[in-house]
Amino acid sequence: MAATLTLTKVSKVFAETKAVDTVSLDIEPGQFVGVIGRSGAGKSTMLRLINRLIDPTTGSISFDGVEITSLRGKALRDWRRDCAMIFQQFNLVDRLDVLTNVLIGRLAEHGFLSSMAMQFSDEERTMALQALDRLDLVPQALQRAGTLSGGQQQRAAIAKALVQQPKIMLADEPIASLDPANATLVMDGLKQINKEDGLTVLVNLHTLDTARAYCDRIIAMRAGRVFFDGTAAQLTDDVVRDIYGTQGLREFNEAVTSTQSIAVPA
């Protein structure tokens, strides 16, 4: 059953820098949430705190009544399986074929020996092919991952996350390095999974148009704090100006006008 993700006064301090500053949020089941803000606003740090790639300095994170910040050992590994993470850099093994890369998402279910031997069942192979089919990548299943385009690699990374059978999916700037056409395919894939599976998706984005087009809810961060939390309709130009500041908004507008906008989903 779907559950709420709760952050309560979460902070993360690196030396003299407070990357995340007393953030409190409830992410409801099945929401598609976009996180925006200037570089250094704390977006990526917040996702890494949720996935427990790093530990908070203070505060707590819970999911379905379980205190995530106290997990250790197998319980922590299980959480990282349940809370799938998609990175900007794809995190695929270039020399392995796409199908094997996706199957690596199943290793959390294996013992040490079968993990080392990369032994997968027919059922798992079927699961991986079904995930690739959902992302229009079956023709590339036996192709080396390193030969794919960036957009194809990111969709393969989503398929890899999908076979983990997660309860929540995090994506850290998944389209930052992609052209508009591939960015649309990636975002369409994430939105399809969100709608069809009822899976909670939390995604860091660097373009406002994308957040407005795809997200049920938009959270804006500034200097480590939540500065805005609402719908796309509530994200007015005045609010955007407050989030990015005059200089930041100018830089953002220059970046947007230098590329085509991402296609708005039907």
TrEMBL record:
Superkingdom: Bacteria
Enzyme Commission (EC) number: 3.6.3.27
One MF annotation (Gene Ontology) recorded for this entry: ATP hydrolysis activity
GO CC annotation terms, alphabetical: membrane
Pfam families: ABC_tran
EC supergroup of this enzyme: hydrolase
Domain ABC transporter: 5-248
Keyword entries, A-Z: ATP-binding, Cell inner membrane, Cell membrane, Hydrolase, Membrane, Nucleotide-binding, Translocase, Transport
InterPro entries: AAA+_ATPase, ABC_transporter-like_ATP-bd, ABC_transporter-like_CS, ABC_transpr_PhnC, MetN_ABC_transporter-like, P-loop_NTPase
Protein name in the entry: Phosphate-import ATP-binding protein PhnC
Organism: Pelagimonas phthalicica
